[in-house]
Every structure is written in structure tokens, then in C-alpha cells.
Amino acid sequence: MENNENKIFSIPRIGEKAPVFKAVTTQGEINFPEDYKDSWVILFSHPADFTPVCTSEFMTFASMEEKFNQANCKLVGLSVDGLYSHIAWLRTIKEKIEYKGMKNVEVKFPLIEDITMEVAEKYGMMQPGESNTKAVRAVFFIDPKGIIRAIIYYPLSLGRNFDELYRALIAMQAADKFSIATPADWRPGDEVIVPTAGSCGVAKERMENKDEMNCYDWFFCTKNISKEDIEKELNIKG
Ligand code: BEZ
Questions:
Q1: Is the CB of 137 within 6 Å of ligand 1?
Q2: Looking at residue 198, what is its pLDDT?
Q3: Which of 62, 73, 86, 115 has a Cα-to-Cα distance from 174 of 20 to 30 A?
Q4: For ligand 1, what atom is nearest to the CA of residue 55?
């Protein structure tokens, strides 16, 4: 039998095409990423059904699903459990679990069954140093062109911050829309980073023109984009 410790797992990287797969989910079969053309998608893995951290995560993510959908982003979950386990767990969450004011929570987004670990291995979600039998908590942000734009990994014991996942999604969408970058801890309405000037002339012009931009130095200029403009262009509510 092959020892997972010695197996080479590939991890797709930022800027690459999202690996293609077909899978069975709690919402029927999916063809990934083909079925998600024209929208962002967050593909995420969790270690196991019927576990507490994962339950808290699913309740939180499901409660925020509409907010992600409004931002043109679909959610797709995955674990190496089977379909009937997924169905039973999601039913238990809806019927029995009340947690932090959330109750009767219905998980409407698809949850992939991956008992063969085929998808988990394709996406580098199996990390044998952490576990040979459970996927780590991976998060892949994939854009409407099917390109991986951000990847976050968490260990088994650490529940994710879903406000941060939403913040990262909106920041990437704002960067695309306005050709800017976003500084540390950015939220809509905060100043944004203007890409570094390509020539000395442009840098000098920027340093002199303080109206539109705030330049801390030649390589570090910001400008304001209002929260309203971000929300209008991205078609989101505050
Ligand atoms: C959890 O979701 O609670 C969990 C899952 C696998 C390992 C540790 C914790």
C-alpha cells in the first residue's frame, strides 16, 4: 500500500487555471469550474462531517451565503466523506443545532463527496504532515475566468474567519475594477494604493499633484475611492 507520507502532492498556485473535475455533491453533479463561468467561486475543504469546528464554520458560511452571492460569488464545499454522511450532517445542523443565534440553518451550496480524495489531492487539500485521512481547511478563490486568485490554508484545529474571506473577495474585485491595490486591513471606503509609477517623470508629477493622491514617498501613493463608489461598481450592499 502506498504511504501518503511519501506521496508527492501538487498544489495549484495563484495565477494558474483551476484544476478541472467532475463531482457528485449534495446539490447534484457539478462540472468544475465550467459550471461557475462568469462568477467568482470559493472552493473550500473541511476535515470531516459531524465535527464541531466544521459545524460552526458551515453554520457561519451558510448564514452569509446570500452576501457572497450578492457579490457574484458562489460557494462550494468539499470533504473526503461520502454523500450520505454529508446529507445526514447537514440535516442535523438544520434540525438540531442552535449556535450563536443561528438556528434552522440550511446549507444550500453544494458539498462535494470526495471519498477517493481525487479532488482533494488535485487541490493540495491533503497535507499528510497534518492528517493522512482528512483534508485541511483550504480556501481557493477562483475568478470568473477560472483563474485561482488567492489561496488560504488553515490547520484542522483553527476555524476560519468568514468576514476575512468576504473582505478578501471584495478587495480583489475592487482591485480588478479600479486597477488599484489595497493596503493592510483595507475595507471599502478606506484609501487605496495607486500602482507604483513606472517612470521618474510620473513619480515626480504625483509627488507634486497632491489633490488627487496622497504620496508618502515616490513608491507609496494612495487615493480615495468612496464606499458608495465601491459598492455601486461591485453591485453590493454595505
Ligand atoms: C472539527 O471540525 O472540530 C475538527 C475536525 C477535525 C480535526 C479536529 C477538529
A1: no
A2: 72
A3: 62
A4: 2
